[in-house]
Design goal:
The protein has ten helices and no strands. By secondary structure, it is mostly helical. Helix 3 runs antiparallel to helix 4. Belongs to the MIP/aquaporin (TC 1.A.8) family.
C-alpha cells in the first residue's frame, strides 16, 4: 500500500485554521465526554471492572488532545481551548486580534462534540440519557456538584494552578529550543496527569469551551456554576502567558515554533 501524497506546503487560510480548531475541539470533547459517559462505568454496578474509571477518562483526554494536535496542529497551531488561545496571546505567541475567531470556533467544536455524545446517549437503553443528564453530563461543579464534595475555593485554586502549569508546559515544549515533534505527546501527558488530580475536585475543566458545552446539556445548577470554569482557567492562562517571558526568557527576544496543540 502506497502512502498518500503530501500536498505542497502552503500557508493555511483563515477559514482552514478555524475549521481545524472546530475539528480539534470536537475531537477533544467527543473523546472526553464520550469516554466519561459510556465507559467510565459499564453495567449496572458502578464497581463493574469493565469500566475505565477516572484513569481511563484522564487517558482519553490526553489521547484525544495528542491525536488532535498531530492531525490539526499543523494547520491552526492546535489550541482547542479558549484559555490556551488567550494565554498564547498574552505570551506574544498569537495575535490578540485573532483570539475571538479562534474562541468562537472552539465553542462551536465543543458544542458539536457534546451534541454528538448526547445523540448517541439518546439511542441507549431506557433511562440512560436521563441518568447522564441528571448527573450533569460530565459537567464541572463544586460543592454538592463536585465528585468529591470539594467547595468553591478548591475549584478556583485547582483551575488556576493547573491551567497556568498547562500553559507553561505548552510554551516550553513549543519553544525553538525544545525537541521538535514531541510537543503533542508532552501536552497530552500533562492533561492526563492534571485530570487525575482534578476529576475528584471539580471534574477537571482547564478548558472553558468544554465546560460550557457540557453545562448546556447538564442544565440547571451545572449551568449556574459554569462561570467558575470560564473565569478561572482564563486567569490561570493569562498569569502563565504574561509571566512566561519574564520567568523563563528574561528580556532577550527569543523565537518560537508555532504551537502544536492544546486542550
Amino acid at each position: 500500500m502506497s502512502s498518500p501524497e503530501v500536498p505542497p506546503s502552503v500557508e493555511p487560510t483563515t477559514a482552514s485554521q478555524l475549521l481545524a480548531e472546530v475539528a480539534g475541539t470536537f475531537l477533544l470533547v467527543f473523546g472526553l465526554v464520550g469516554t466519561a459517559t459510556f465507559s467510565a462505568f459499564f453495567g449496572e454496578e458502578t464497581s463493574n471492572p469493565l469500566g475505565v474509571g477516572f484513569l481511563g477518562v484522564a487517558i482519553a483526554l490526553g489521547l484525544s488532545v495528542t491525536i488532535a494536535a498531530y492531525a490539526f496542529g499543523p494547520i491552526s497551531g492546535g489550541h482547542f481551548n479558549p484559555a490556551v488561545t488567550l494565554g498564547l496571546a498574552a505570551a506574544g505567541r498569537f495575535p490578540w486580534r485573532a483570539t475571538w475567531t479562534f474562541i468562537l470556533a472552539q465553542l462551536v467544536g465543543a458544542f458539536l462534540g457534546a451534541l454528538a455524545v448526547f445523540g448517541l446517549a439518546a439511542g441507549g437503553p431506557a433511562g440512560f440519557l436521563d441518568k447522564a443528564v441528571a448527573s450533569g453530563f460530565v459537567s464541572n461543579g463544586f460543592g454538592e456538584l463536585s465528585p468529591g464534595g470539594f467547595g468553591l475555593v478548591s475549584a478556583i485554586v485547582i483551575e488556576v494552578v493547573i491551567t497556568a502549569l498547562f500553559l507553561y508546559v505548552i510554551l516550553g515544549v513549543t519553544h525553538t529550543r525544545a525537541a521538535a515533534g514531541f510537543a503533542p505527546i508532552a501536552i497530552g501527558g500533562t492533561l492526563t496527569l492534571f485530570l487525575l488530580i482534578a476529576i475528584p475536585i471539580d471534574n477537571g475543566s482547564i478548558n472553558p469551551a468544554r465546560s460550557i458545552a457540557t453545562a448546556i446539556f447538564g442544565g440547571g445548577d451545572w449551568l449556574a456554576q459554569v462561570w467558575v470554569f470560564i473565569v478561572f482557567p482564563i486567569i490561570g492562562a493569562l498569569i502563565a502567558g504574561f509571566s512566561y517571558r519574564i520567568l523563563f526568557e528574561g528580556t532577550r527576544p527569543v523565537g518560537s515554533r508555532p504551537v502544536a496543540n492544546r486542550s
